[in-house]
Amino acid sequence: xxxxxxxxxxxxxxxxxxxxxxxxxxxxxxxxxxxxxxxxxxxxxxxxxxxxxxxxxxxxxxxxxxxxxxxxxxxxxxxxxxxxxxxxxxxxxxxxxxxxxxxxxxxxxxxxxxxxxxxxxxxxxxxxxxxxxxxxxxxxxxxxxxxxxxxxxxxxxxxxxxxxxxxxxxxxxxxxxxxxxxxxxxxxxxxxxxxxxxxxxxxxxxxxxxxxxxxxxxxxxxxxxxxxxxxxxxxxxxxxxxxxxxxxxxxxxxxxxxxxxxxxxxxxxxxxxxxxxxxxxxxxxxxxxxxxxxxxxxxxxxxxxxxxxxxxxxxxxxxxxxxxxxxxx
Length: 329
What we know:
By secondary structure, the protein is an alpha/beta fold. It has three domains: 1-73, no CATH class; 77-231, TIM Barrel (Alpha-Beta Barrel); 259-329, no CATH class. The protein has helices at residues 20-44, 110-128, 151-157, 174-182, 197-204, 209-222, 243-255, 277-296, 310-326, and strands at 78-83, 132-140, 163-166, 187-191, 229-234, 260-264, 300-303. Strands 1-2-3-4-5-6-7 form a seven-stranded parallel β-sheet. Helix 7 (243-255) crosses helix 8 (277-296) and helix 8 packs across helix 9. The termini are far apart. The model has no long low-confidence stretch (mean pLDDT 90).
């Protein structure tokens, strides 16, 4: 059980062992230790170098790490439950994905069945015993949920909860549609990464762009209100950064009443040494043009710091401003 999804070696986690109760309690104790150690080092200031970190040694390598009184004065409950357990199947073959298990049968071994069962037991115990906030945001991101062999168990777990379903939209699922209709805070989340069927095929390895768009529109029609379809765009310079893709994306966003786009990049490179300045420049340019195009068409852009470094985000926004002021976009 992890505290975050950053691509940092040895980031905080606890091993799943013993009973569900033992695992959850160990998880919450670890959280308390992380907060306590962070506060202590914050108070030590310049004298902190003489002490060794036990719980936050990996955290300080993270771009998002902040010394703060996290949890002080709060309710101490879990407010985000991200169900992203692997191995998990996905029939998409995205060129940036290094975790590809295409057949659901590949995770039907006795070991995988047992591990998933333990995960479900832990989450259910935490929820039933008051560790999860009533208004918590739930996320299902284990591969492609619509072909997952344990999808019915996932659906049962989040029944009645505000849930974000990470899906490739290859398949329209009535269970997801029902959740969208019943809960205005629920949503689907697709990394579309293209605005034309030709680019979709290059990025996704599948020639089904029109089917995916139709499924998106069906989910939109089933939603309780506009805004329950969320889109992400992983910028891949030289592959999906043509203006035809950006304009095609805008048209689709209009059809789905999507007003904000999450912009991301290949997260595998985030914490690598910046040895290839040329690649970084190409990313800034491609992302800046996308941000400017969105703004020019009345949309907003959210640059994801899960993939972008803060300096890359700032440079992208600055370049987008230049493009808008010059009238180039």
